[in-house]
Amino acid sequence: MLSPSNTYPALQDDAQALSPSLLLELFGQTPIAFHPIYVDVTGSLTAALWLAYAAYHVAESGTDPEGWFQKSQEEWALETRLTRREQESARARLRELGLLQERRGLNQPLSYRLVTARLVELLEAACSQQREHTAARTESAAEPSGSNGSPRR
Fold this sequence. Notes:
It is built from seven helices and three strands, in the order H-H-H-H-E-H-H-E-E-H.
């Protein structure tokens, strides 16, 4: 079997050629993209990744009429590379924040439901906080200072 570097030797010399579509073609894997604000909202990189992939899955595959969807732990691991413990930790953090609900039926896999109203609430709060920090930095940068670093009067 040819490796991607043998199949596409130019890739070794041109990192720009590693586009998502080429990687999909070579390896058959779709990328998982997420917004960094998910990390700000959850306080956890793994929770942010789990949340982003869940949102992607819901957008692509949909949910039942009540908003529930299923995905096995093995599917999560295969698609996200998160270990069982990382998945459990991420889900625990999302439940703690009110972003995720879970249920298990008799002889059924675990079902999940994203609480989008809570997600919007936390995203708005994070954006507001970021705007405040940006405004404070802008104000402090605009203040003239004397030669000793203190504001001029």
